[in-house]
Amino acid sequence: MSDFTADISQLRREYLAQGVSRSDLSHDPVMQFSKWFDVACRARPDDATSMTLATADKQGRPSARIVLLKHFDREGFCWYTDQESQKGKELAENPQAEILFYWYGLERQIRIKGRVETLSGEQADTYFHARPLGSQLSALASHQSQPVESRELLERRVAELETLHSENEVPRPARWGGYRLIPDVFEFWQGRESRLHDRFRYDREADQWHITRLQP
What we know:
Its cofactor is FMN. The protein is α+β, with helices and mostly antiparallel strands and 216 residues long. The protein has 5 helices and 9 strands; from the N terminus they run H-E-E-E-E-H-E-E-H-H-H-E-E-E. Helices cover 25% and strands 34% of the residues. Helix 4 (133-141) crosses helix 5. The mean pLDDT is 95.
């Protein structure tokens, strides 16, 4: 056992943003997300689409990582990845997940949870071939989450594939595809002074959304 202890209890942050009231919110959580997302895109366009994806295996053991939102509408929120990765295997075992957006400069976060389904092969093809060539080659070369002997081996695979496909379209790996999270619950959080944050949860009830203010 190590006797090392890092005491970071005095590191603090103050939240100074303007508050959010019930009357500020859209009745439609996707529209409310879109409003906040547009603000985030204007503030930090390079980071607005970053989201934490939390999944769990069939034993309920959780894992989380950052992925990028690629498109959304009232049907759900979509991203693409290697479906044989850890997250892909967990979603196959337990197709429930939560995504979290945190926009530091705006002192805002949005949690969205629900059931996850796979996107069609046609949708995966469309997005895959719209990616930069280097990203296509990396996806073809790498079996995400699997062990590899060295980075040099990965780079050699990419170089070989680049030569092989220099004049031909890079084929989308069968293991690479997309997912859609179909929301059941949204939570919008706005940081406020003295930690008296504003929190609102949307719960789906049949075809309607019910909004509740939560204590911080």
